Amino acid sequence: MKKRVRAALAAATLAGGAVATVTAATPAFAAGGGINVTAACKAQYPNALEEWLVTAVAADAGSIYGWQCWDGSVYELGGVSMRSACIEQYGSGAVAYVVPPYNAYSWRCT
How wide is the angle at C-alpha 78 spanned by C-alphas 70 and 41, nearest 5°? Predict the structure, then answer.
């Protein structure tokens, strides 16, 4: 793998392209971003009757607390912990926050 990375860097340098330095260490927290709410629902409700059908629904799109997890669009499982979602998706140091406009789609992780 390292040989391929070195070869790609060498080729980019020879071609006159910009090269970014990448560290090999994996941090406890990766750079944040958006939240995959359906993945969060599946992680937070692993014992759902139809786990493969679990999905997230913005039941109240105008509220930051509007997300609900559903089992096959039939049974409401409950809400979503965005704090847990950030940690699951970005690592132990991740923090959930909202950005304007404050609605269901405003959640991000840092």
Answer: 60
Contact between residue 32 and residue 108 where contact means Cβ atoms under 8 Å apart: yes
Element at 39 (helix H, strand E): helix 37-44
pLDDT digits (tens, 9 = 90+) for 36-51: 999 999 999 998 888 7
Contacts (Cβ under 8 Å, ≥6 apart) of 22: 5
pTM of the model: 0.68
User: Is pLDDT above 50 for 18?
Assistant: no
Q: Residue 8's Cα: distance from chain center in Å?
A: 28
Question: How far is the C-alpha of 92 from the C-alpha of 78, rounded, in Å?
Answer: 23
Tell me which residue of 52, 54, 50 sits closest to 37, measured CA to CA.
Answer: 54
